[in-house]
Amino acid sequence: MTAQQHPIPDNLTDHQIILEPDRWILVVAAGLLSFVAMLDMNVVNLALTDIATGLHATAGVAQWAALGYQLPLVALLLPAGRWLDRVGTRPALLLAVTGFAVCSALAALAPWASWLIAARLAQGAFAAVLFVLMPVLAATSVRPALRGRAMSVPATLGPLGAVTGPVVGGLLLDHFGWRAVFLVKLPVCLAAAWIVLRHAPRRGRLRPPERGSLGDAALIGAAVAAVLLGLTLAPGAPLWLLLALPAAPLVLLWLRRPGGRPVAHLLRAAGTAGANASVLCLAAGFAACHYLLAQQLRGPRGESATATALTMLAFPLGMVLAGRLGGRLADRWGARPTALTGAAVTALGLALLVPLDPGWDGPQIAWRLALAGAGMGLNGGPTQALVMSAAPPGRLATAGSAVQLCRSLGFALGPALATATAAAATARTGLAVAALLAASAAVLLARHRPSAAA
Fold first, then answer.
1. Is residue 303's pLDDT more than 50?
2. So where are the chain's domains?
3. How far apart are CA 317 and CA 212, in angstroms?
4. Topology annotation, domain 20-206
5. Between residues 64 and 394, which one has the greater pLDDT?
6. How high is the pLDDT of residue 375?
7. CA distance 158 to 406
8. How far from 409 is each of 273, 315, 402, CA to CA, in Å?
9. Of residues 317 and 95, which shows the higher confidence score?
10. pTM: predicted TM-score of the whole model, two decimal places
């Protein structure tokens, strides 16, 4: 594609407009980082037993190799967005990619569990910056007319990393051991850092975060931890759901703080609260379905790990094939109708999985998964473009952090919700809840009306 001229701010808050060519290589970098960040969220889960054995730790302690990454990631997404609205994109990206890679290496070298947990906590903090920067990098690297297509790259490769994580993890564990799970991300990080170093505009600088950011992160992290603990422990005793009750007042308290007020104002001014909620619902439905199907195939059906992996790969295959089409349709016909169509297709695919029958073979499950994956591919980029395009000037990173927070919350809440539902009823009930969540995303997008202020 020939270079075209389009306006781009010299950092995430500066309103000065200059002309720059389309930089698709930076969109590729955003996609690579999205893939590796989401891969990390899933690939480590398979290694927990091996980590516990290798570091002579209990299963509960080893689990913090995963939780230690996810909690700071979710807690810091919105504070990171506010910070990134004030700094240069290039130095922030280089800092985050370098920190993420160094923490991966430190985790692989961990001689004991406390070392590993500390490395994962730090890596989750750097991942929060990456998650916010990825859509911003994609959105500002091309003309607005090509934004839907560009946003589809990280929006497709991110969930692809989440779904293929167990497959990659299984291969690495079988042949190289648990330390390879952390080292496999280093080549991708180095490639992305090289692209940013060579091709990102040399503008902007780093600044220290505002005071109060740690307090905001603590409130958000505590709210998320309360919900996750409640859902995770509820199957054994439903009273544990009471742990989730403090989440609402913690979020309300955060919204009244300086860190929460700009986010609430952004959602009102841009009119994107419903679109963000649709991202959360669709991610939760996808994650719940993926978790339940993997458990059913490996458990009651007794499928081998290889057969399960091949069946589950139908979802990312459908997502990748439809992802590029979704970006083109959004640029031609509009982001909202394309995103709505994608959510409806995902809901249909998940609904067709609800009557999961023991007699179904792999292909019968796979084509339903492929249909749901195609819907996710159609939805991801256009929904992100819808939100980013509605963001007021100087608030791209805040808008991006809100989308990433919703998606990360959905990925975290989906398996916990599936576990609680399936334990209380059946796996089919859990799949029905997943389909209902996807249908809710379609309804929210159908009702979406951007604010006139946007």
1. yes
2. 20-206, 211-257, 271-449
3. 43
4. Growth Hormone; Chain: A; (1.20.1250)
5. 64
6. 92
7. 14
8. 15, 20, 10
9. 95
10. 0.66
Amino acid at 332: R
- Please tell me the predicted confidence (pLDDT) of residue 63: 67
- Tell the residue number behind the tokens 């609260």, with chain if given: 273
- How far is 394 from 92, CA to CA, in rounded Å? 16
Report the pLDDT value the prediction gives residue 281, as an integer from 0 to 100: 92
> β-pairing, 17-21 with 5-9?
antiparallel
Residue 20, strand partner residues: 6
Residue 208: what residue type?
P
What's the pLDDT tens digit per position in 246-301? 888 888 887 777 767 777 777 776 677 788 889 999 988 988 887 788 767 766 66
Q: How confident is the model at residue 232 (pLDDT cuts 50, 70, 90)?
A: low
Topology agreement, domain 20-206 and domain 271-449: yes
Check if the beta carbon of residue 206 is closer than 8 Å to that of residue 80.
no
β partners of residue 8: 18
Q: How far is CA 80 from the centre of its chain?
A: 15
Residue 434: phi and psi, rounded to 5, are: -60, -45
Q: Which of 131, 149, 139 is nearest to 396 (CA)?
A: 139
| Mean pLDDT computed over 159-183 | 77
Lowest mean pLDDT among 116-125, 168-177, 283-292, 432-441: 168-177
Give the gyration radius of the chain's Cα atoms: 21
Q: Could you tell me if 79 and 216 are in contact, meaning their C-beta atoms sit under 8 angstroms apart?
A: yes
Could you tell me if 333 and 378 are in contact, meaning their C-beta atoms sit under 8 angstroms apart? no
Instruction: List, in sequence order, every residue forming a beta bridge with 442; answer none if it has no partner.
Output: none
Q: What is the pLDDT of residue 5?
A: 38
pLDDT of residue 371: 94
pLDDT tens string 3-32: 343 333 444 443 333 346 778 888 888 888
Those residues whose C-beta lies under 8 Å from the C-beta of residue 446, and which sit 6 or more positions away, are 340
CA atoms of 329 and 77, how far apart (whole Å): 29
Work out the end-to-end distance of the chain between its first and last CA atoms, rounded to an integer number of angstroms. Answer: 30
Amino acid, res. 81: G
Instruction: Enter the tokens of residue 172.
Output: 């690495």
Q: Provide φ and ψ at 237, rounded to 5°.
A: -155, 110
Alpha helices (H) in 200-304, listed in sequence order: 213-233, 247-255, 261-270, 273-298
Bridge partners of residue 18, in order along the sequence = 8
CA dihedral for 414, 417, 418, 419, sign (positive or negative): positive
- Angle at Cα 74 formed by Cα 42 and Cα 260, nearest 5°? 165
Query: What is the SS3 assignment for 187-210?
Result: HHHHHHHHHHHHHCCCCCCCCCCC
- Domain 271-449 CATH (choose: 3.40.630.30, 3.10.20.30, 1.20.1250.20, 1.10.3210.10): 1.20.1250.20
